[in-house]
Structures are given as C-alpha cells and as structure tokens.
Amino acid sequence: MKRCLKLLIVALAALPVTSWAATPGGELLDLTTTGWGYAALVLFGLSYLLVMAEEVTHLRKSKPVTLAAGVLWGLLALVYAQHGDVHTVETAIRHNILEYGELFLFLLVAMTYINAMEERQVFDALKSKLVGHGFSYRKLFWITGVIAFFLSPIADNLTTALLMCAVIMAVGKDSPRFVGIGCVNIVVAANAGGAFSPFGDITTLMVWQKGIVDFFTFFTLFVPSVVSYVIPAAVMHFAVPEAHPEAEEENTGMLRGAWMIMGLFLATIVTAVCFHTFLHLPPVIGMVTGLAYLQFFAYYLKKTHRVGDPRDGSPEHLPEQLDDVVGFDIFKKVGRAEWDTLLFFYGVILCVGALSTMGYLAVTSELMYTQLGTTWANVLVGFLSAIVDNIPVMFAVLTMNPEMSQGQWLLVTLTAGIGGSMLSVGSAAGVALMGQARGKYTFMGHLKWAPVIAIGYFAGIYAHMVINASRF
User: What is residue 226's predicted lDDT score, i.e. its pLDDT?
Assistant: First the structure.
C-alpha cells in the first residue's frame, strides 16, 4: 500500500506544469487543463459514485467525500507550494470551512430540536392519530401528502418523509401497491413543500444564509410548489386502491413538555429570522441562541423528572433506560444528530470548493449561464439535482455566483428543490424511503411516475415565471 502511494505521488509530481500561470500576487492558478485537475475530477467522480451506491454497498455516504475532500485540498496545497505560494490555498479553505461551520451549527440546532420532539413522542402521537382513524387508501394518500407538504417547511423534507412513510407502512402492510405509490407521493410532496421555506431543504437554507433571498421572499414560491406537487398527485390518485384498510388501535400520547418544545422551536426560528433581518447577523447566531432556550427547558425537565411517571416516559418509550433515571438530557439529543449527514455536507462543500479553486466552476458558469442562458441553466439544475443530488449542485451555483435577478435565484431554488423528485435517488427523502420501505418503494417503481413528476416540474416553473414575473 505504501509503495502504491509513493508511486502515485511521484506520478502526480511528474505531471506537466507548463500550462500553469503562477502569479506573485497569489492569484488562483488555472488547473482545469492539467493532469492535477483531471486527477481531481476523477477522484471526486469516484467518491460520488460511492455516495450514490450507498444503498448497495452500505458504505456511509460521508466516508468517500470526506476522504476526497482531504486529498483534493492536499493536492492543491502541493501544487501551490511548488510555485512558492503557501497562503492562497489556506485562505481558500478557511473560507470554505466558514461556509460549512455556519451550515453545521444551523443544522445541529434544528436536528436537536427534531430529536427532542421525537423523544417527547410528538411524531408518534401524530402517527397514532392517522393510523387509528380508518381512512381509505385514497384519503390517506392525500392526507399524508398534504401533511408532508406543509410539515417539511418546518421539520425538513427528510424527517417529514420518514414520518409519513411510517404511517403508510403501518396502514398499508397488506397492500404493497399502496405503499409504493404512497411513498412516491410523499417524496414529491416533501420536496415541493421544502422548496418554499428556508428551513425546508438544505438548498433553500444555503441561499438564505448567503443573503441572496430574504426570509419572506421564499414564500412567493408557495403556489409554484403546490402546482409541482398537485399535478403528479392528481394523476397518481387514480392508481391508488379504493379499499379501506383495517384500522389499528394505537393510543400514543405526547410526553410532558412536548408542546413547550414545539413552541421553543418556533421561537428559535423567529429569533434566527429577526437576527438576520433586523440585526444583519448570520441566521446561525439566532439558531444557536435558540438552542439555549431548549437547554434551559431541558434543565427544568431534568430537575422536575419523576421516575415512573408516564408523563415523563418509561424505559420502553425512551431510547435508553438511563433516561428514566436522569430525566431529559439535552446532550443526548445533540449526540443523536445525523452525524453522517453533517459530515457528508462537510465533504461536499470542501470538494466543490476545491474544484472551484482549480477553476472548474468558472468554466461551468461560462458554459451554463453565458452560453446556455440563465433560465435554461436553472432548469438544467433541477435535472442535475435528480441525478447527482441537489446539495452539491446548489453549492456549486452559489460558489459560481452568476449575475442573476431575484426571480432567477428563486427559480434555481425551486428547481433544485423539486427536481430531485424525478428520481428516487435525487433527494435524501427518496433514498431514505427506499431503505425504510425496502422492496415496496423502489427505484424502478418511482421511475414509472417520472414523466408525470416532470410535467409537474415544468408546470411549477411556468407558474413561478407567471406569478413572479416582476422579479425577473
């Protein structure tokens, strides 16, 4: 292994450098036509293939991209060091780490609140209500879809999709056909709902944190998002069985403090918006301040916890039996955050940042936004999101930072959000549901509805261009 690494380093060091134009002022080198650049593209491509194959290989998606990020920046540092520049790469990577740091803390707070609500059985209580009502398959199809659409702007599309899929699986255990169609509907609804809220998807969050679109302007995408969901749902409705599944007796209630935690989460969102809108501070400052709200309330729950009180939960209700002794522990909620997802974002942001430093995003920006045209480039972003995933695509667009009107920025936000619905692997919600409803919700089962989803995709774009014409 060591011998192979030595040979690789020697081979890379021997690559031609005559095309590089180093400048004493520390300007970026154009590495797009060099062996180093091609090696970087191959490495990133291989790492992302492993990400896309996670369902088959069971290799967590964070591992290949974090490794690729380290190697790419190591290559960049080596190249610039050969030209006597040891500061440019350091400055560039610090900028990328700052970008990631803001996103990381923001998501960590949001995930902690979601975990706290899950532990207080907020989502289990909602599932219990839906399962016990005895709705028909068609009614449940629309109820879960509408809830997914309106819940994802707050709880994010992944959490929402997993919750609604649990409901679908519970009532549709005797109808694999209903489960398959219901999961497609949930993915489309959750992605569409997440597109009109800064909290609904990572892509909208990144656009808001950049200050490109203010908080309330996102809601102008509400009607286009509704259109992109309702059209495919209306067509799929006729394929849903008309039968009534047998209602199940479930009576799960929320634990003590659940309503207060939901209220504190809303207060945290308001704090983040106010900090950004009125104080011109990054939204993450407001989010971390809001985490303190939950920490103080957790202290209260812990001090007033009574062992054996069903309102405080019992060992069978809580993740760990120790919680029944120590009460509500805020740091356990932090520890249960989606660390694989958070590290995946680290790898993606640093990989894309490295490719940008090499000059590839400048070339891509020229090709897409100058030669292809802004509108068609933003429409293409949606299709790329369905294949690659919307997070690296949107981060690349933000890094390129093309000159666009507010209407075009809203358009690319919309397309990146709803475009991932065209394939089951195009969004985190789709990938998660393939695992949760394994064998019933599949890639091919989703692909069958791709033409209808694509019609909704273009209809949503058209609705945005008509309704928000003044913003272009």
Answer: 96
Question: pTM for the full model?
Answer: 0.76
320 pLDDT exceeds 50? no
Question: Which among 133, 128, 159, 160 is positioned nearest to 144, based on CA atoms?
Answer: 160
The answer to whether the beta carbons of residues 190 and 149 sit under 8 Å apart is yes
Check: CB of residue 11 under 8 Å from CB of residue 43. Answer: no
Residue 150 CB-density burial (10 A; 0-12 exposed, 13-18 middle, 19+ buried): middle
Give the number of residues written for the chain: 472
- Domain segments of the chain: what residues? 37-94+346-471
* CB contact set of 86 (below 8 Å; sequence gap of 6+): 77, 80
Q: Report which of 469, 460, 465 is spatially closest to residue 191, judged by C-alpha positions.
A: 460
Between CA 454 and CA 388 the distance in angstroms is: 17
The Cα 115–Cα 336 span in angstroms is 7
For 138-150, write each residue's pLDDT tens digit.
998 999 999 999 9
Q: Which two tokens stand for residue 290?
A: 């809001």
- Asked if 442 contacts 449 with a C-beta cutoff of 8 angstroms, the reply is no
Q: What is the SS3 assignment for 416?
A: helix
Cα–Cα distance measured from residue 364 to residue 400, given in angstroms and rounded to the nearest whole number: 8
- Quote the CA–CA distance of 219 and 204 in Å, as a whole number: 11
- State the Cα–Cα distance between residues 250 and 471, nearest whole angstrom: 49
Contact, 199 vs 156, CB < 8 A? yes
The C-alpha atoms of residue 382 and residue 189 are separated, in whole angstroms, by: 16
